[in-house]
């Protein structure tokens, strides 16, 4: 997950699932980041998280 991700304040994860698995290649990345990459190809898991908060329903 992105390091910048923050769950909604006061919420807890109710459920989570894999929404997609994407194939990624070094050539898909910006040239600035390529020296940092450790592989030429990899998969990225895209999660779907459902949060619950103080009895106010669900937030996706």
Task: Write structural notes for this entry.
The protein is an all-beta fold. The model has no long low-confidence stretch (mean pLDDT 87). A three-stranded antiparallel sheet has the order 1-2-3, with no helix packed on it. The chain is built from no helices and three strands.
| Count of DSSP-assigned helices | 0
Structural class: mainly beta
Strand order of the largest sheet: 1-2-3
- The general outline is elongated
Number of strands: 3
Distance between the termini: 15 Å
Unreliably modeled segments:
none
Radius of gyration: 16 Å
Secondary-structure topology with pairs:
Elements: E1 12-25, E2 41-52, E3 58-59
Antiparallel strand pairs: 1-2, 2-3
Key phrases:
60 residues; three-stranded antiparallel β-sheet; elongated
Give a short overview.
By secondary structure, this protein is mostly beta strands. The protein contains no helices and three strands.
């Amino acid at each position: 997950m992105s390091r910048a991700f923050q769950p909604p304040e006061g919420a807890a994860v109710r459920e989570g699932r894999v929404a997609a698995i994407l194939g990624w290649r070094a050539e898909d990345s910006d040239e600035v980041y390529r020296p940092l990459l450790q592989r030429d190809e990899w998969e990225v898991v895209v999660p779907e998280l459902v949060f619950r908060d103080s009895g106010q329903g669900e937030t996706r």
